[in-house]
Amino acid sequence: MDTETAAKNGIALLTLAEKFVEKSLLALLVLIPVGVLYFSMYKIWPGLELQPHDFKAVTVQPLAPEHSTPRLLRISRGESEVRQVVFAKVHKAASTTVQNILLRFSVFRALNILLSKRQHQIGERTDLIQGIVPHPEGNNKTFDILCVHLIFNASNVAKFFSDSAIRIAILREPLKQTVSALAYYSKNFPSKILKRGRAKHPQDPINGFLRHPEDFYDFGNGPAFSYVNNRMSVDLGFDRTNFETGKTNVSKIEAFIKQVEEQFDLVLISDYFDESMVLMRRYLNWAMKDIIYIKRNAAHFPKDSVWHRDINRNATVMERFRTWNLIDYKLYEHFEPKFLDTIKQEQLFKEEVSAYAEILSKVSNFCLRDAARTKIFHIPESEWTEEFAVTEFDCKLMLLSEMKFIKYARLLQRARFNQTNNKMYEGKVHK
Ligand SMILES: *[C@@H]1O[C@H](CO)[C@@H](O)[C@H](O)[C@H]1NC(C)=O
Ligand SMILES: *[C@@H]1O[C@H](CO)[C@@H](O)[C@H](O)[C@H]1NC(C)=O
Ligand SMILES: *[C@@H]1O[C@H](CO)[C@@H](O)[C@H](O)[C@H]1NC(C)=O
Ligand SMILES: *[C@@H]1O[C@H](CO)[C@@H](O)[C@H](O)[C@H]1NC(C)=O
Ligand SMILES: *[C@@H]1O[C@H](CO)[C@@H](O)[C@H](O)[C@H]1NC(C)=O
Is 23 in the pocket of ligand 5 (CB under 6 A)? Predict the structure, then answer.
């Protein structure tokens, strides 16, 4: 059985199991305290577990031979595809779409991803890397792909990834990024403090925030607990001690920008998303098929929602917000022109981006409209790509939510761990 069919089986099983878990959980919650349930779920409901033989079908492709990819600036394009990628998943900067691309790339090559055992992220509040799914080939092996949330700390990350892994970050225009985070978290995961801000500014929370960001922020908890205080810089590792003082310190901010410059090979800009993906593909020497996507995780609000109020962009308001979000502004103002400059120097770049956009729209039409009927779709060979097929399974993966995809990737990795360690039919869940 080929990998794709096998993976397909895996995903179908996963969906089934998830439905079952959802229903059973509801029933269980009535009977047993939540803590006990979570702790002993496997023991109480052995039937819920995906069985090892369900995964027997997954053909584990051998990893590509260890090739030491030189640092980005030194690579001569046209070598084999880069398979080791560290992606700093910055909040609300289209990073879930990039994550989906990286996850798909990993699934089809049986790459090992740094994943948390339980959550869909390693940590949003700390830069510690712990509680991870073991590497199938042993504890001192480096992983191939990082694409889940954590607060970036280069020396911690270096414990899990080879120095030759390409480091990529992504940024978004700070006003858009913050407003998007404010709306998204207020709607989906409202903290006490976001609710407080909302209550103070019920009719117009965005403009309320821009004028009074402190109403939506808990100074006691600090920036790792917030998504609306320079979150991009926090994600990329800006020092969180004495944060409010730090963000008025221009030389500290400049040193941080220099650090990002040194720690990352490529800083993408999500406001130029397709350009970013084309640039990434060129640097990683990936195929066009590797970077196709269907846009995900974009916030949807009804037209009359308070989250659609026009933003008051008068100078006073913008200056207030800029002061609040100064680190992110400085960071963006450094890397956005740099990005534009980089793509300007690329040859035939615009041409490739429009070819890409055309392919994306065909893929999207196929996946959202025709996939159930036609099953497979061919993108013909052109100057920009070899011929490739998009299957129903590709569509499914592109449309998979972050949480589901992470669960699926974790199961594949555990199956690979079992296979490598010949533990397929032993009784215990490994630690
Ligand atoms: C760790 O690496 C050493 C050599 O680099 C090797 O001998 C050893 O077997 C490895 N241990 C595991 C658990 O993979
Ligand atoms: C990264 O983590 C280490 C501990 O592992 C810590 O000593 C160091 O200060 C951290 N670096 C930054 C920039 O926060
Ligand atoms: C600003 O940051 C730099 C570098 O971290 C530090 O040496 C300096 O003391 C800071 N200045 C103030 C006024 O806090
Ligand atoms: C900007 O808007 C704020 C809030 O509506 C208002 O108080 C302020 O006077 C305006 N400033 C200018 C320069 O228009
Ligand atoms: C891996 O093996 C353990 C037992 O050693 C088993 O409980 C678990 O279900 C297996 N996982 C997968 C994904 O095959």
Answer: no
